[in-house]
Amino acid sequence: MYRDNATSTSSSLEQLQNILDQFPRVVVAFSGGVDSAFLAYMANATLGSDRSLAVTAVSPSLAATEREEASTLAKEWNLRWQTVHSLEMESAEYQKNDLERCAYCKGALMDILEPLAKRQGATVLLGVNVDDLGDHRPGQRVAAQRGARFPLLEAGFTKAEIREQSRFLGLRTWDKPAGPCLASRVPYGTPVNISTLSTVERAETGMRQLGFGELRVRHYGDTARIEVPVERLAEVVAMREAVLSVVTAAGYKYATLDLAGFRSGNLNDIHGSSS
User: Fold this and answer.
1) Cα–Cα distance between 28 and 87 in angstroms, integer?
2) What mean pLDDT comes out for the span 258-268?
3) For residues 37 and 40, what is the distance between their CA atoms, to the nearest angstrom?
């Protein structure tokens, strides 16, 4: 059985299973990213589909490719899965994009997941890990205050360990690039709206079609600030015309290349940068 194999080869997986076993039923917030995918898989493997439900919140902040990936993974792993529509974009507080944006977003998510979980006698689980504690994540505070639990954090998992264990389990998400919500590309203080998020999504989709899997397109009005790993900066320059084509087709007038390279979450450096 899966449980026996995991217990004999990985104490961290055993610890996570022990934590999950405490819950009669769970609702896992499942974006399709590395962390939530690992948690959804483990919850299903540990508790079974009768006690575990994976839920993907669909909104303009979620790239269409991520929603499709969540659906595909749910089918591959035989997860009990459903989508819900998150309404954070209807919040004026969310749209103004201040330092508490993620708090408003998680509040909107919990507004949906809480009643869903309550009907099933379940607990809401989020894929927060140890590394998230060092970032600006006000949404975690809101989720915890409203009763959500973070089993990966409780089991002491770092992002690297989640990838390592995902690889051990044969999950193809183990090396998937991080894909936070599209609003994370917009500097704090710049309003978030559907048009902006769509522009970012189109630009990033175009860049991925050019072969740049790990990247960010940061939104600065009519300028796209492109981040790729430092070792790939020269490739962007060499493909200058193609890059300009996809970025302008997305709706930007200018494209710049960040010579510091790709830094996940760098707009959250609220102490050392403007956002």
Assistant:
1) 18
2) 81
3) 5
Q: How many other CB atoms sit within 10 Å of the CB of residue 23?
A: 19
Q: Which residues contact 37 (CB under 8 A, 6 or more apart)?
A: 30, 73, 127, 166, 171, 173, 176
226: which strand partners? 217, 257
* C-alpha to C-alpha distance for 219 and 200, rounded to whole angstroms: 7
- 29-49 pLDDT, tens digit per residue, is 999 999 999 999 999 999 999
Q: Are 178 and 264 in contact (CB under 8 A)?
A: yes
Query: Is the sign of the CA dihedral 131, 261, 180, 194 positive or negative?
Result: positive
For residue 160, give every residue at least 6 positions away whose Cβ sits within 8 Å of its Cβ, in sequence order, or none: none
Q: How confident is residue 105, by pLDDT bands cut at 50, 70 and 90?
A: very high
Share of the chain above pLDDT 70, in %: 92
Please state whether the predicted TM-score (pTM) of the whole model is above 0.70: yes
